[in-house]
## 1
Amino acid sequence: MTAETLLTSNAAINPSNTITVSGVTYIYPGTRALDNVSFDIPRASVTALVGPNGAGKTTLLRCIAGLDRPLSGEIRVAGIDVMEEPRLAHERMGYLSDFFGLYDELTVRQSLTHAASGNGVSEAKLATTVTQTAVRLDLADRLEQRCAALSRGLRQRVAIGQAIAHAPNVLLLDEPASGLDPEARHSLAGLFTRLKNEGMTLIVSSHILAELDEYSTHMLVLRGGQVIEHRPLTLSGDHAHAATPGGEQPIRTRLARPLPNPRGLHDLLATLPGTRIVECSATDALLAVQGAADEHAAVLRALIGAGMPVASFHEEHENLHQSYLRSVQLAVQRSEQTASTNTTLQ
Ligand code: ATP
């Protein structure tokens, strides 16, 4: 069995490789950390779990990992009820906590063996699993070193190796890149993309949005223990950007100078089929265009055919950072509106 097939075998046999969270509420004394949280995460995806400090990200990951028991609600991982069958669920998931511990006296090989064996990898496959995991995390030359002698970044890699050694269906990572050097962060991003492509479902919590941008397919924003946004991000090149609803692509176009009729650009765009105007000034428009390159070319042809002095025409990419800030701003506006409505009603 090759390294790749061994690591993908669990993911391949379970078609329902998803995470389902329904109505989960978690309360610490005096703090409602999660408030009726519900969402579904599709198989073979990477969800960026983002939100301000204290939003409830760690609590949510701990609940999905079965380490904390919510007051109410249900959580299923790869079809298994985490609260009913925690042991079985643990075999299907890997979890890296934001503050993890390693056994300092164990070598890297012993640490990976211990984790893989504890998560159900058979005796016969242990040695190969450990070697392959070490290769994946660039730890092959450190296998005989004791954890106590490792730098912070290397310890982080061992901890990630422990979380993925048993080829889980679902991988939960709380701030996985903290302490890693830029090269290690980049190779970690590549690893997450490969794991996703092999069928694994990942949730990654991080405050470093530029990094999540490299590999995330979905964004889940938590604030005050509530989900304020959960949506797919489309991937273009190496970067994620927000897709508009209905499979439309955001296109930005600019004219070199205003037309004699300031509404001329708007009036022409309004006549184009499959094109929705998101915003438009005398010289600048953001459009949502149905379809792909051929449809985009048709819009450009129409603009030039009508004599518009088109200076630029391109897909508008919104990165995760912009997307996140917009979600949080909208949530703040919504709660301010609710507060002022309540005040008016009183
Ligand atoms: P950060 O980005 O700062 O890591 P987070 O989004 O992971 O934050 P959590 O750690 O899940 O947030 O905390 C959610 C809320 O629960 C916060 O208000 C926090 O103060 C509170 N909280 C977390 N752990 C405990 C605890 N052990 N006892 C009491 N309250 C807690």
Note: The two ends are 69 Å apart (CA to CA).
## 2
Amino acid sequence: MTPEEFRAAAHTLVDWVADHRSRIPSLPVASQVKPGEIRDALPTHAPEQPEPLADVLADLDRIIVPGITQTQHPGFYGWFPSNAGLASLLGDIASGGVAGLGITWQSAPALTEVEQVVTEWLRELCGLAPEWKGAIQDTASTGTLVAMIAGRERASELSEHGAGLQAVAQPLVAYTSPQAHSSVPKAVLLAGFGSENLRFVDVDPVAYAMLPDALAAAMAADVAAGKRPAIVVAALGTTGTTAFDPVAEIVEIASEYGAWVHVDAAMAGSAMLLPECRHLFAGIDGADSIGWNPHKWMGTILDCSLLYVRDVDHLVRCMSTTPSYLRSAVDDDVVQYKDWGIPLGRRFRALKLWFQLRLDGVEAIRARLRRDLANAQWLADAVAAEPDWRVLAPVDLQTVCLRHEPPGLHGEALDRHTLAWADAINAGGKAFVSPSLLDGRWMVRVSIGAEATERADVQALWELLRATAASCR
Ligand code: PLP
């Protein structure tokens, strides 16, 4: 494709995107396709000859769009917000346009230095101390794995440069909450700790936050058994209920053993942009690493996850490789992001943040987050005031965990009722919610924060929840 052919095709595609985004409210929120339906609609073999763009766009409408759950829909309350703001989409297009190869500073100096600047902007906007240094990862899962390896290597005195974990005299132990995201235990396994060396520390039965005394007891028991506490992952804004582990106390306990503290604030990190929410993150500057996702609530299009560390030199010692073909004369003077994480080749993700922050402005982002917090409080109050409905966890952010509990329904019968009305809502196409287990029983998470969701949408949702639950009795 020549640049002139691209110009024509891209204008058509941009029009398609703008039209598509405008009509999202008229689409069903949850994709209604059956497994295999999309695959069956596509040819078995790749085309030998070029096809017209019009045919490809027609298939986008006919085949692809029905196979997308519309996370940009005002009725999307599932999982967590996954906003794909159009200003950041422009940055994504620009990133492809400049085609920067991010393997070293030399391969695209702007790619490295814009990333340094935007991670510093966001550090400041989040009220984090100046010693934090940030890099963009693809996802929080990768950020947690990187932190896990850094924690492992600090506890094992850089064992990877010798015989690795196989020669470590004391088994290393990792700690987290049973409410932590599944990417945390996954990182523990991938970093070679072994599932026997993963402790799920008890949480408070009301707030679902880690109990510091239980952490202290677990660490002391491990030390008595000849093991070494290596890392604690504190969850700030858990996936189930957006609970906040007490990071200040966790840092204090971990420091007795020299254990690394990683903060997983994948969802909640956006709330650090709001000074009135910073109390939820008290003590965070004492941690060793923090991960959070602009690609969730803040609205930077996937993928864009931030990982901040305080001791970058240690991280580089863990992650650095220096093949001769990547050497340059300025290596001592520049940041090499290849040494701050796992991949060599990096996309120019910083442009997504750069475009979003410049074109939207921080004040508008803050206003949207505040709108969502107020909407969640409105819904929580409405649910709490309604007979036979219950709010099941503190609403610290924008997610409300709720259940319809009609008299006489308990145990598995209550579970069947909860799943029936949640599934009916999702099948109806007007809204999408996530049923999830809490204390072994099904409940429904209503996670407010799609960019398009206004108070009237939340009010309509509440009507829909009541009508659907009543009709499922
Ligand atoms: N941590 C928390 C608290 C999450 O809620 C999620 C996803 O929802 C993740 C980590 C994983 O995020 P990612 O998809 O960026 O790996």
Note: The longest strand covers residues 228-235.
